């Protein structure tokens, strides 16, 4: 299983703080994102555009390969000032 956590605007738009999805061999951040975006319009809106991702609390690119038991987080870019 992959644990997915959503933060900030991604959490608000998807209306989901966390969920688990079955692990599939060859799964990447991009394929997970694609799978979630096809759940419904809320997920599609939450994951479109610039969304950062982390795997096991480390920032990763969309081509990052996932392993069973990983924790993936999606969140918008953070700005400061």
Silhouette: globular
Helical content stands at 25-40%
Structural class: alpha+beta
Give the rounded overall mean pLDDT: 94
CATH architecture: Roll
The CA-CA distance between the termini, in Å, is: 38 Å
The SSE string, one letter per element, is EHEHHEEE
Count of alpha/pi helices: 3
**Relative strand content:** 25-35%
CATH class: Alpha Beta
Organism: Alteromonas aestuariivivens
Family: Belongs to the MoaD family.
Protein name: Molybdopterin synthase sulfur carrier subunit
Keywords: Nucleotide-binding
Can you put this structure into words, describing what you see?
This protein is an alpha+beta fold. It has one domain: Beta-grasp domain (Ubiquitin-like (UB roll), Roll). It is built from three helices and five strands; from the N terminus they run E-H-E-H-H-E-E-E. A five-stranded mixed sheet has the order 2-1-5-3-4. Strand 3 and strand 4 (58-60) form a beta hairpin. The model has no long low-confidence stretch (mean pLDDT 94). Belongs to the MoaD family. Keywords: Nucleotide-binding.
What are the SSEs and their pairings?
Blueprint: E1 2-6, H1 8-14, E2 18-21, H2 29-37, H3 41-47, E3 52-55, E4 58-60, E5 71-75
Parallel strand pairs: 1-5
Antiparallel strand pairs: 1-2, 3-4, 3-5
